[in-house]
Design goal:
single chain; 38 helices; Nucleotidyltransferase, domain 5; about 45% helix; five-stranded mixed β-sheet; seven-stranded mixed β-sheet; Lambda Exonuclease, Chain A; extended; alpha/beta
């Protein structure tokens, strides 16, 4: 295209890139009445503004219709009106320029861009247009103006607008226009909100229908279209094949589902009404349908249409205002009509009516009545958006109403046309226009009633004639969206749902256990023999390995020492333990006995307290069970089966839960000591992951360094607790890019592995984004040189300091670049925001550039979560995390978790010191002593009778 870029092309491009392409090709469409009205209003604003400017300044201070060059602007007129700037590719028309003081290439002054616009409110489009004009003007005067002026609205008000100091968006617009002017291929074809008033609306709609374009679905944006395009989805039909109703996550707080464009596309393809979820509509014997006509630009509603349906009786009211002063009067008439009904439900379509009621509540003296109307009102669009998908491209009243059989007298009637009709009536077009508006409003109320009653019947589950209307809805195809995913899900383990009870019965009779115990048992001799053996099986009496006699030396009542014992009436109970050595594991059955005691001082009988509180399971068995559960992730049910199979002991999974609680209480001081060492150290890695409990949800946080690991449970992902927890920490915190860590007052190193993973993922999804590809390549080359130094010398700052200049050079270059790609811009902002936290490791010794320590620690919990997600209580999870902290700390320090548990120590460092000391003095590992708590003499014959008093515990007795 050789055509120059004009102001018309520029403004069209800001509305729609494809429209800008058509304008640049000098194509013409048919302007709609609304667009023609806007052009007339802009011309009126232009005349008023020019008259006001000329009235304020003498004629020699206002230059008109001049070419805009540096020489012409150096003459310094106070105003320049209707100037034209031309170069090789631009031919822009400036509504005006205003001179203000300030140094520039022109001298001691420079110019601001002036814009004439018809709208009463200044919107983003006008601000961006001023930004572009200001950027173009800077080429003439050598300075980008900081402000612009817009004359706007019927009152022709002059407003000073601050221009955006970041010129990248304006530069992107100009660059896009110039690229489009030199390219033969058109930009991507997309429909948007501007299409309803565009002169090419009919042409573009036909092209979209022919292409089955995704943007036919109203509300789908360009980012959503780009996301689908990366998956190879470019048409409505393709999108309709992708709908699968996903299971709602447990962490989703809102009950309202999002609007699924794929389900909307499926409804269009199959021409069915799909219903999703549970919907509710207010029910009342009196139903009112409200539709207001107004001029949004002026903030004025001139027609209130109200249809009241009571039983089979229908009444319609139309309250008309000739001017803005009568708006309150017609609103009072509306309230008087509504107040005659004590109980009613008011329906409207869209948010305009509710906004009108809230606005009138501020100016009308009937606030209580307006509050009642608002409380009884219902926006029908919200019900449709939440769960009803009509086979239409949008949820507009005209589209849905036309599908349900509603008609309008005027062809292509719309809200924009009603604004044109009202302006025409105000210009003196006569009562025919007024009657046309009232008829249009009445038909809108009728369509609203039809849509509302159809939704009410769908909600009520009606399949025949509606109970509230005389229109049959049974002919409309209605289907549940939940049934779509149910019919397409693949088979998996678990409870299956069957369409007929006969199929469910047959499937239930095919279960493995059912057939072995009831069907195959009748014909298979082996199964009968096994079943008989199972029935005859008796509990085998275990042989006792040791016997401990427990005596008391004091009376628990009077503390007397004159005690008589009765050995003939001995009380006995069994306890169980495991003897763990290098050579294997052996079951221990300990008989704990105590004779009845009688105090001769107070003449009272008792049993020793230590006998009554003696635990059934000793520390060795508890340690082995928790080692299997924590270190290897074996479930309690499997540990129960293992203990029964290996050792012949019956330990239920309920008792195993008790083991976990007891050991967690024992090692809670150990975790506090580990956390204190972490905070006193020079490095902490932090990370978090979600977890689901039986009731509610939460997050598991991990703090780790090279030797210690601590897990913490918190009910939310808020990081406020870190402020208090890490108050005394003065080292470097290594984290991911979660914002909760940013407020911590310590040096931080962001994980570069997270960053390059994100870059790689986005690069694979956008392989044709050359700018982003170049960006990632440069960053990758910088990291490669740094990592090569680390591989050679390690994490030593005296070797890493040489890369500081390379990093500074990279960020200087990055900050001075202007990227066109959205992805490159996003990563540019991300890197510049975290500039001081990406390369902290260059300034420290032994500080890694990734968060692998914390991520590795979380992997163990993540595997455990796969099995227990949604099954644990908060207290059970806290107990597990205490033991997991000890286990992972032992692993990071290179010692056996089981050895530590069996040693009876509560300090991991002291345990390691004891092991090292034993190894130096005896040349033996610590295992013989720690694994043989119940055997003071290795070799030799074990005593069968050991006594134990209340004042001490014998060496034969393991800790409980």
């Amino acid at each position: 295209m050789a055509t120059k870029i004009t102001s018309d092309v520029l403004e069209s491009y800001l509305h729609c890139k494809f429209k800008g392409h058509l304008k640049l090709a000098e194509q013409q469409g048919t302007k709609c009445d609304f667009e023609a009205m806007l052009m007339e209003l802009r011309a009126e604003v232009r005349l008023k503004a020019i008259d006001a400017i000329i009235a304020r300044h003498p004629g020699d201070q206002v230059a008109r219709n001049i070419p805009l060059t540096t020489a012409s602007l150096k003459r310094g007129p106070q105003y320049v009106l209707d100037g034209t700037l031309e170069d090789d590719c631009l031919a822009l028309h400036f509504d005006g320029l205003k001179r203000i003081e300030g140094e520039s290439r022109l001298g001691g002054f420079h110019f601001l861009p002036v814009l004439f616009h018809e709208s009463r409110q200044i919107k983003k489009g006008q601000k961006l247009l001023l930004d572009v004009y200001g950027l173009v003007l800077s080429g003439l005067q050598g300075r980008v103006p900081a402000y612009g002026v817009i004359w706007h609205g019927p009152e022709c008000k002059a407003t000073r607008v601050k221009l955006n100091p970041d010129h990248r968006q304006a530069e992107q617009v100009l660059r896009g226009l110039k690229d489009m002017a030199t390219s033969a291929s058109p930009p991507r074809f997309l429909l948007n909100e501007h299409c309803s008033m565009c002169e090419f609306r009919q042409r573009c709609h036909e092209q979209a229908v022919q292409e089955d374009n995704l943007t036919l679905l109203r509300g789908i944006g360009e980012k959503e279209v780009n996301r689908y395009a990366r998956k190879g989805i470019s048409t409505v039909t393709q999108l309709s094949c992708t709908f699968r109703l996903r299971k709602r996550g447990k962490r989703v707080k809102t009950q309202q589902r999002p609007h699924y464009f794929a389900l909307q596309a499926l409804a269009v393809r199959e021409k069915k009404i799909y219903v999703l979820g549970t919907l509710k509509l207010p029910d009342s014997p009196v139903r009112m349908f409200l539709d207001c006509e107004g001029d949004p630009e002026r903030g004025f509603s001139y027609l209130i249409g109200l249809t009241i349906v009571e039983g089979r009786e229908e009444r319609h009211f139309a309250f008309w205002a000739d001017n803005e002063a009568e708006e309150v009067s017609i609103f009072k008439q509306f309230l008087d009509t509504v107040a005659a009904y004590p109980d009613f439900a008011l329906f409207s379509y869209g948010s305009y009516e509710r906004a009108f009621l809230r606005r009138m509540r501020k100016v009308a003296p009937w606030k209580k009545l307006v509050d009642k109307v608002l409380a009884n009102s219902c926006n029908v669009v919200s019900a449709i958006h939440a769960g009803i998908y009509f086979p239409t491209y949008s949820n507009g009243l005209k589209d849905v109403g036309a599908y349900l059989g509603c008609t309008w007298s005027e062809r292509n009637a719309s809200g924009m046309k009603s604004v044109v009709w009202r302006r025409a009536w105000e210009s003196g077009s006569g009562d025919a226009i007024k009657q046309k508006l009232i008829t249009y409003n009445t038909e809108d109320c009728a369509a609203l009633r039809r849509v509302t009653e159809c939704i009410a019947e769908i909600v009520a589950g009606a399949t025949g004639n509606g109970s509230q209307s005389g229109n049959p809805t049974g002919s409309l195809p209605v289907a549940r969206a939940e049934g779509i995913s149910a019919s397409t899900t693949s088979w998996e383990f678990g409870q299956q749902h069957f369409a007929f009870p006969e199929l469910e019965y047959v499937s239930r009779c095919a279960y493995f256990d059912y057939q072995r115990d009831k069907i195959f048992l009748r014909t298979n001799k082996t199964l009968r023999r096994l079943h008989a053996r199972k029935v005859r099986r008796r509990v085998k009496k275990l042989r006792v390995n040791r016997r401990i006699v427990i005596r008391s030396l004091r009376c628990p009542f009077c503390r007397g020492r004159t005690i008589r014992r009765y050995p003939a009436r001995m009380h006995v109970k069994l306890a169980y333990d495991l003897q763990i050595t290098e050579g294997g594991i052996r079951r221990q059955v300990i008989e704990c006995a105590a004779a009845p005691h009688r105090c001769l001082d107070c003449n009272r009988s008792f049993l020793p307290h230590r006998y009554k509180v003696r635990d059934k399971h000793f520390h060795g068995l508890k340690s082995w069970a928790m080692y299997q559960h924590i270190a290897h992730g074996i479930s309690f049910q499997r540990i129960e089966a293992m203990i029964r199979e290996f050792f012949g002991l019956r330990v239920t999974w309920v008792e195993l839960h008790m083991f976990k609680s007891l050991l967690a209480r024992r090692y809670k001081p150990t975790v506090r000591h580990i956390l204190a060492k972490l905070i006193a150290g020079a490095l902490i890695h932090a990370d978090e992951t979600h977890t689901n409990l039986q009731r509610g949800k939460g997050y598991v946080w991990v703090l780790a360094n090279m030797e210690e690991v601590v897990y913490l449970y918190k009910p939310s992902r808020e990081g406020n607790f870190l402020q208090e927890l890490l108050k005394g920490f003065t080292g470097v915190l290594v984290t991911d890019f979660y914002s909760a860590y940013d407020s911590l007052p310590c040096e931080q190193q962001k994980c570069l592995v997270h960053l390059i993973r994100d870059m790689n993922h986005d690069l694979l999804n956008n392989p044709f984004d050359d700018e982003f590809k170049s960006f990632v390549c440069e960053f990758g080359q910088l990291l490669r040189t740094i990592v090569a130094t680390i591989d050679r010398y390690g994490l030593k700052k005296r070797h890493l300091n040489k890369h500081t200049s390379d990093v500074e050079r990279f960020f200087r270059t990055l900050g001075g670049r202007q990227y066109h790609s959205d992805l490159a811009q996003a990563y540019q902002q991300r890197l510049m925001k975290n500039r001081e936290k990406l390369f902290t490791f260059l300034r420290h010794d032994s500080v890694p550039w990734n968060n692998n320590n914390a991520e590795h620690a979380l992997k163990h919990y993540a595997k455990y979560r796969n099995v227990t997600d949604g099954k644990m209580t908060e207290s059970g999870l806290n107990d597990y995390l205490i033991l997991l902290s000890v286990c992972q700390t032992c692993k990071y320090k290179g010692v056996s978790f089981l050895s530590f548990l069996l040693s009876g120590e509560k300090d991991v460092d002291k345990f390691i010191e004891t092991a090292d000391k034993r190894r130096r003095t005896t040349g033996l590992e610590i295992y013989p002593k720690t694994f043989s708590l119940n055997h003071p003499r290795r070799g030799g014959r074990r005593k069968q009778n050991n006594s134990q008093g209340d004042d001490g515990q014998s060496s034969e007795s393991p800790p409980s």
